Amino acid sequence: MTSKYETESKGYTMTTVMQEAARCLLCHDAPCSQACPAHTNPAKFIRSVRFRNVKGAAETIRENNALGSICARVCPTERYCEKACTRAKIDGPIDISGIQRYVTDMERKLNMKILKAGKPNGMSIAIIGSGPSALQAATTLLEKGYAVDIYEKNAKAGGYLTYGIPEYRLPEEIVDYEVQRIVDLGAHIIYNTTVGEDISIDQLKNNHDAVIVAIGTSKAKMLPMFEHNICTESAISFLARAKENKGKLDDLPKNVLVIGGGDVAMDVVTTLKKLDVPYVTDVVYEQFSEFKASKKELAGAQAAGVTIIDGYVPKEVHQNRATFTHRKIDSEITITADKIILAVGQKADATGLNIDLQHNEIPFREARYRTKDPKVFATGDIVEGDKTVVVAVQKGKEVAEEIDRLLGGQEND
After folding, report:
1. Taking every annotated instance into account, which residue ranges of this chain make up the domain Dihydroprymidine dehydrogenase (predicted)?
2. d(CA 362, CA 370)
3. Using an 8 Å Cβ cutoff, are 98 and 20 in contact?
4. To 10 degrees, the CA torsion angle through 155, 156, 160, 161?
5. For position 352, what pLDDT does the model report?
6. Domain boundary at 109, 133, 163, which?
7. In a domain, 137, yes or no
8. Where does the pLDDT of residue 350 fall: very low under 50, low under 70, confident under 90, or very high at 90 and above?
9. 79 Cβ contact list (under 8 Å, min separation 6)
C-alpha cells in the first residue's frame, strides 16, 4: 500500500484539462509567457491543448525547458506565470502548472522523443553537479553539439530534486525520467565522484574547453546557539533521510519543533504530518504578511494541521527546550519538543574547487556566470537570483548560451 508520503495529488484527465484550458483568454500579448523565467511559453502550449494537440504542447515545453515535468510539480507559479495571468483579475488564474503536468505526463506515457543532439562540434564541457541548472545547461549544450561530462558526488543525479523535495510533491520516477532523457541525449554522468577530492578542477580544465560549477547550496546553515545541540537536525538532513527511506523513519517522536518559514520548512512540516507525527509546531521569523514560502505550500501545511507561530526569533535553547521573543511586541514563548529541525537556509560548499565564494555566492555583478578564471563558469543557486527550479533552468540555459558565444560554437551552425 502506498503511504501518504509517497502519494502524489491527482492530475487532470483529458476532459478536465480541456475544461481548464478553455478558460484561457488567448491573450495576444501573453503576459503569462513573459513572466516565466525559463520562457516555457504557457500561452502557446495551452493553445495547443485547446486544439487537442498534445504533441505540439509537449514540443513547446521541451524546446524551452528540459525539466518541464519537474517544474510542473514544484514551480511556485503564483510568483511567475499565474501571477501575470489576465484571468486572475476575473475569477482566478489558469492552472498553468496543472496543464503543464498533464502534457508532460502524456509525453512520458507516449514515450515522445522531442529533443535532439546537435551535430558534434568537437568541443566538450565539464559540469560539476547535477542539479536542475546543471541538467538544463547540459541539455542546451548537447543540442548545440558539445560533448558534456557531468561529475556528481552522489550515487544519483538531480541534486536537491533527488535528495530534498518530498516524494508526494516530486516522485522519484519523475526525476529519474528527466535525467534519463538527458543521458539519452548524450550526457555522460560520472557518479560518486567529488571534484576537489577524486579529481581536481585543473584536470577538468585540461580535458575540457570549459567547466561549469553547479554545486548548488547543499550545506545547511546552522544558527550558532543550535550548533552542537544533540536534539537538533537540519532540514536538509531530515528531508534526505525521508526521501531515501520513502518516509519510513523509525526515529520520529510525537512532538517536533521546526524553525524556519521558507518552502523547505513547509516541506519539513508537511512531511512530518504525512508521517503521522501528531504535534508539529513551526516557529517563523517572518509574520504571515511577509512569508517567504509559497502560498500553496503554506496552505498545504496549514491544512495538514501544522501549528504555525509567526514573528518570533530564537533567543536561547537548552537541548530540546527553545525560547523565542517576538520581533515587534513584548512577548516571549518557550517550547519543549522531542526533536528540533532547523530550516533557516542553505549555503554552498566549494571545498577543493579553488573558486572565489563571497558570502556563499560567487559575485557576478558585472559578468554573470563568469568567474575570475576565463575557463570556469558558474550557474544555479550559487549565482545571484531566485532559488527556484524554474530560475535554475533559466540560469542553465543562459550559462550555456554564454559559453557557446565565447567558444564560437555559433559560428559552426
Report:
1. 4-109
2. 9
3. yes
4. -160
5. 81
6. 109
7. yes
8. confident
9. 294, 386, 388
